[in-house]
Amino acid sequence: MSRSGDQGRARVPATFGGSPGNPAYPGGAAAVAPPSTAAHQVPAQAAPAENAALVAAPSTGAETASTAAATALATARGDRLARSVASPLAAPYGDPRRPRTPPTHPFMAEPGTARGPAGRMPRLRIGSHAVSPAALARLSPARYAAGLVLGADRRRVPVTLRMFHPEPSRITLVGGVWAAQLVAFRVLALGARVTVVTTEPAVWNALGPAALGRADDRVEIRTAPGEVRPANAQRPMLLIHDVPPAALGNALPEQPWQTRLTIVRRLEPAAARALKESGLCLLQRLTAAESALAQHALRLPRDSARFLQVMADDMITLVGAAGDRHLWLHQTDVEHQVLGPPRR
After folding, report:
1. According to the UniProt record, where is the region Disordered (predicted)?
2. Is residue 277 part of a domain?
3. How confident is the model at residue 38, as a pLDDT?
4. Which domain holds residue 316?
């Protein structure tokens, strides 16, 4: 008579390591059916072939034969560990009765066909498509103007400024020297020349070596107006006037690809004319009196004039033909190291 321990050892290989697709899976349909009576009457010293034939779960084909053979071998050797893992290791992958065919690929043409590199490519068919204007607008890429990145608006969208044109142009900055130096610092990165006419050369002398790393003729500091070097599309020029309004004169730069930036450190009625004659104005934070003058000269809305008085140090207002925009300058680490913190 067989012992219960022998019966348990005989039933382990049939169910260990099965899968839901395998009838020997403990949670499958084969596990629900009651075991056969013959499986409980297997003696402990049964022959390997008989033991394998009795304990194997109902199955067909080569998979059953391979599992039974591995189980019989493990039982004959008396190796408990080998008997436990015999079933999953011996289970074949796939159905051996299915013919083995190489995988097909779209570029691997069969004999007699003409597709892919093995034959002639099919003829392309190019037609026309009609879309609505609304759908075409969605397909259009976002358009960002090229030029000097001056800052970002409240939606964090970069705002670029076209500094140079084929014709002479003028920009007026109402603020301090720091904002003008920031503009010049970024203009030098574009490859342009900078000429500064100022009554305080000591404030500007360090701009060239700090921006270019050495003394370079691309930056010229002078104390009196005079003839400047010619400019072109490949090497435009920014002419900065850091002098009192009375010394500016009325003539615009006559050379093409040259822009004059006038710094108005304090907005007074005598300097309000410069705002009206400029094509673009840059405004830092203003006092109440300056804000009133700027509102009258530039015809700003009342809310915009009030906001000019409470702007942060790193903000600037851009006023042009397209209206007014409030920007954040977003000073970089290098600019902060060279020019210092934002101020007026």
Report:
1. 1-45, 87-115
2. yes
3. 42
4. 148-339
